[in-house]
Design goal:
The chain has 379 residues and is mainly alpha-helical. It has 16 helices and three strands. Helix 8 packs antiparallel against helix 13, helix 9 packs antiparallel against helix 10 and helix 13 runs parallel beside helix 15. Bound molecules: acetyl coenzyme *A (ACO). The site of acetyl coenzyme *A (ACO) has 18 residues, from helix 15.
Length: 379
């Protein structure tokens, strides 16, 4: 069957059937495997949520402990991967470093047994375990330091913050980071997940799936937005400057980063939770003007664009939270990749279940039977 109506960006076109997550963009609902995101943010952990997404059940205490233990065991990188990362230019973007390193994992774990549940589990564990270590390793390497070895006594979130700063984080900060990881873990068939699914549908290895998704997440219209939000808040500089800044941007037809969403036409439920987390963080670790600028910006954007369904998306407050946790701005998107890896892996596994290679059609707009003009006659 050929569907002939062309929809730019595949807007509204169902491209798969999935039971992993559900979004209602009009009501502001997000559920992972049917569980509202607010429930998970309040009660779960990132690794438990990742397990839920990938294996479609909440793990028992023992199952979760085994999963956490396996991930902890596989956190370290092979020295050859660390050496490879040392050859990357320190001026390179950490997303490019992550994409290259994720792809490189395939060189080391090349056996491909996609119908073997043990292989699937080992790949899931390896990817969830090593992606944070690779992000932190590149951060230290580009500063001229040796990567810090992961600490087995720290949780997933705390260990990442430790590897980044070489200091054990405050438990409250680590919990907030863990919640933030949960909030970004999955979001139906967004661009990077679609990219992961298309790659998965060729039955390539899972490291190629993750590398392709990382490359897609890197763009400023997708995961790259939180980085630009912080740069924008810095450019605004003061609460008084919010309105003139916004009016100038809108007059020049420029987008306000961190606002608007293909699916949500109300405030993104993740932005609501992240705003609460940001408030708690600023309360505990000291106020700074960026939070006030952000709140004012949200109000003025709502006034100017709210009637068009443009409200804060997940990236608006996540940048503020990450900044307060001491995460460098250009690591925001790699941090997004750490959490979204859970969703990508869930879709990889689901895709393998009833796989058919993605091969959509196109509406051809070019010439037919065009002449081949000899090179000397071309103008
Ligand atoms: N600021 C100003 N205007 C906007 C914004 C914005 N942030 N977002 C959408 N609009 C306007 C567009 O200019 C367009 O106006 P027009 O109809 O007059 O041309 C209209 O709203 C529709 O915009 P589209 O780009 O067609 O909407 P789409 O659903 O394709 O875009 C997107 C969604 C890409 C997220 C968009 O809102 C945007 O660019 N936002 C800023 C970047 C951003 O924050 N990205 C992160 C998204 S969340 C995530 O990926 C995790």
């Amino acid at each position: 069957m050929t569907v002939c109506e062309f929809r730019a960006g595949l807007e509204g076109v169902p491209a798969t059937q999935s039971s992993i997550s559900f979004v209602d963009g009009q009501k502001g609902i997000l559920e992972y495997r049917g569980i509202p995101i607010q429930e998970l943010a309040a009660k779960s952990t990132f690794l438990e949520t990742a397990y839920l997404l990938i294996w479609n059940e909440l793990p028992t205490r023992d199952v979760l402990a085994d999963f956490e233990h396996e991930i902890q065991y596989h956190r370290r990188l092979k020295y050859r991967i660390r050496d490879m990362m040392k050859c990357f230019p320190e001026s390179g973007h950490p997303m490019d470093a992550l994409q290259a390193s994720a792809a490189a994992l395939g060189l080391f774990y090349s056996k491909r047994a996609l119908d073997d549940p043990a292989y699937i589990r080992a790949a899931v564990v390896r990817i969830l375990a090593k992606v944070p270590t690779m992000v932190a390793a590149f951060q230290l390497i580009r500063k001229g330091n040796d990567p810090v070895q992961p600490r087995d006594d720290l949780s997933y979130a705390a260990n990442f913050l430790y590897m980044l700063s070489e200091q054990e984080p405050d438990p409250f900060a680590a919990r907030i980071f863990d919640v933030s990881l949960m909030l970004h873990a999955e979001h139906t068939i967004n661009a990077s997940t679609f990219s992961a699914m298309v790659t998965a549908s060729t039955l390539t290895d899972p490291y190629a799936v993750i590398a392709s998704a990382v490359g897609t997440l890197a763009g400023p219209l997708h995961g790259g937005a939180s980085e630009e939000v912080v740069e924008m808040l810095e450019e605004i500089g003061s609460v008084e400057n919010v309105r003139p800044f916004l009016e100038d941007r809108l007059e020049r037809k420029q987008r306000i980063m961190g606002f608007g969403h293909r699916v949500y036409k109300v405030k993104d439920p993740r932005a609501i939770i992240l705003q609460q987390l940001a408030e708690q963080l600023f309360e505990k670790f000291g106020q700074d003007k960026f939070y006030d600028i952000a709140v004012e910006l949200e109000q003025v954007v709502e006034e100017k664009l709210g009637h068009r369904g443009i409200f804060p998306n997940v990236d608006f407050y996540s940048g503020l939270v990450y900044r307060k946790l001491g995460i460098p701005t250009d690591l925001f998107t790699p941090v997004f990749a750490i959490s979204r890896a859970a969703g990508w892996l869930a879709h990889w596994k689901e895709q393998l279940g009833e796989n058919r290679i993605f091969r959509p059609t196109q509406i051809y707009t070019g010439l037919h039977s065009a002449p081949y003009v000899p090179i000397d006659e071309r103008q």
